[in-house]
Amino acid sequence: MADILMVEDNLEFYDMVAGFLRHQGHRLALAVDPAHLYAVLQDFRPDLVILDLHIPGGGAFLAQKVLDASHNAATPVLVCSGMPVPYQKAWFPETPLRRYVAKPVELDGLESLVDELLAGGSPAVGHA
Asked: Could you read off the pLDDT of 64-75 as tens digits, one per residue?
């Protein structure tokens, strides 16, 4: 189905989400910080990025700059953080290709957001 890159330093959370999304047919890759993200993007072109805000080595802001510089500026991003969604939106303003979810996540809700973003940002059927 889709190539999904998670930028996440919590390996237990990554394992849970990656297992779920792989079961849905997606391929997953992991980057734990912006430097690792740069290296991963040399060989992996994601259809979607799931981005934690609080990662070491410069945080999500630097990670987004790495994505933009790697010709991935049009790649949809699902911001996934322990920070409440209104604060996520304050840090990373809304765009047509950006959605937000707070940890802990409900996997069904995560799946709906992933499907929505992979469909080009249009709300998925049954998703409000």
From this structure: 888 888 866 789
- Per-residue b/e over 47-57, b at no fewer than 16 CB within 10 Å? bbbbbbbebee
> Which residues span the domain enclosing 113?
3-118
**8 A C-beta contact, residue 50 and residue 58:** no
Does residue 50 sit within a domain? yes
For the chain, list the strands marked E by DSSP.
3-7, 27-31, 48-51, 77-81, 98-102
Write the Ramachandran bin of 114: left for phi over 0, alpha for psi from -120 to 50, otherwise beta.
Answer: alpha
Mean pLDDT of the chain: 90
Domain count, the chain: 1
Report yes or no on 128 lying in a domain: no
Count of CB atoms situated within 10 Å of the CB of 41: 20
Q: How far apart are the first and last CA of the chain?
A: 23
Distance of alpha carbon 29 from alpha carbon 44, whole angstroms: 8
CB 60 within 8 A of CB 92: yes
pLDDT at 124: 47
